[in-house]
Amino acid sequence: MRYWLRYYEKSRLAFHATHDALTGLGNRALFEDRLHQGVELAKRHNQQLAVLFIDLDEFKPINDTLGHSIGDQVLIHVARRLEKVVRPSDTLCRFGGDEFVLLLPDLNNVQQAEEIAERLLVELALPYRIERHELYLSASIGMALNDERLLHPEELLRQADMAMYKAKQQGRNNLQTFTQDINQKLTQRVTLRNDLQEAILNEQFELHYQPLLTREGRVKGFEALVRWNHPSKGSISPGLFIPIAEETGQIITLSQWVMERAANDFLALQAILPNHCRIAVNLSPMQFHRPSFLNTLHSTLEATGLSAHSLELELTEGILMNDTEAAIETLHALRTMGISIAIDDFGTGFSSLSYLRHLPVDKVKIDRSFIVNIAENGKDAAVVQGIIALAHHLDLLVVAEGVETSEQRQQLIALGCDVFQGYLFARPMPFEALKSWLEEQEILV
Predict the structure, then answer these.
(1) 409-438 as b/e, with b when 16 or more CB fall inside 10 Å?
(2) CATH superfamily of 11-178
(3) Measured over all CA atoms, what is the biggest interatomic distance in the chain, rounded to whole angstroms?
């Protein structure tokens, strides 16, 4: 009897040494051991092997807003879904947090690994119903393949990790395979991440403003767009530094700076603007889902003196899809304050148009991808017409982003669009240029 008890205890300890306590999947120690074995076998038998690095998108806001108990249940559900897809010969492990790694040995070809990865993406994107919450997740997957130049098995893991970050950059919810180009760009990205902290401390950022106009030419407001003037690299694209700021959490400090600067700039212009004008500021998912968001915003309005009725907040569809009930409560609180809410890049999310009727928002901004060919493409025109009709039925204003030609403007007017934004009217411009633009343009205000 003692022998079996000792055997059981020894087996239990051995299991816990190589497995994740929460999900029951293998841990890093087990994965690294299997990776070494797999690479050795692949070399010996001239086989193809792949490593997939799987990172959940937007998991942190769920964990922060709903608590670790819900977050843990999400991770368990994710683990079970991943297990449904993998083969018996594969090794699936959790590295901690929302990171999972999959070893695919003995592949017939690269396409087989890609098919498995695509099935994982589909499985993970299905809704998660946990307690009273309906949650939506996606994943970014990086893949690395073994070759004869591989010096150490751990390189495969590092390469898959780099490819995963490329997937994040490409809009998330996709698969990227490691290349040397990714290696070079990620090295630049790490440098940029370090520079970003210095940029925030030394205020290397500035705001540019792009006007929004009604069909009659009246100024409806301005969107504040952050720009980074790097001391040695010049202008850095927001498409590059915003995702980095979100990954590192620096987006909170940056967003607060944007809010304060935009408020002060708008107040400096208020004497020459009509009462209906608003300053539009973009919200990040991390900012919106923070428990302190509403209190921080209220304090900012008090400190700057900006009226809530002069502020518009722009959110993407994805921000509102996780824990919709909590998001709706926050939106109601914002509107009670007098703040206008706009859904940005509308039409690019994975949600249906019908969900719009449940959201307390004031306007939708049609993504520029639907506008660029609207004068020539009947399908784009039909989509835009449908969005405008639905929005008007719900008493929402419609803004067209990226309007660059008179033909696009005329088509949008014919379809009933309310407000316009784009290069046809004005490019984003610094504060002083905006003042001059307002003085020089014969625009109805």
Answers:
(1) bebbeebebbbbbbebbbebbebeebbebb
(2) Reverse transcriptase/Diguanylate cyclase domain (3.30.70.270)
(3) 94
Instruction: Give CA–CA dist 287/293, Å, rounded.
Output: 6
pLDDT in tens, 19-41: 999 999 999 999 999 999 999 98
CA gap 87, 104 in Å, rounded: 8
Sign of CA dihedral 348, 349, 351, 353: negative
Q: Which residue has the tokens 């008179």?
A: 406
Distances (CA, A) of 128 to 58, 131, 191, 313, 349: 13, 10, 37, 28, 17
CB count, 10 Å around CB of 73?
17
Mean pLDDT of the residues in the chain: 89
CA-CA distance, 143 to 50, in Å (whole number)?
A: 7
For the chain, how many residues are written? 445
In degrees, rounded to 5, the angle at the alpha carbon of residue 177 between the alpha carbons of residues 349 and 34 is 115
The pairing of beta strand 363-366 with beta strand 397-400: parallel
Domain positions in the chain? 11-178, 190-440
Specify whether the CB–CB gap between 258 and 226 falls below 8 A.
Answer: yes
Tell me the torsion sign for CA atoms 382, 387, 390, 392: negative
CATH assignment, 190-440: 3.20.20.450
CA–CA distance, 262 with 116 (Å, rounded to integer): 46
pLDDT tens-place string over residues 356-400 = 788 899 999 998 989 998 988 888 899 999 999 999 999 999 999
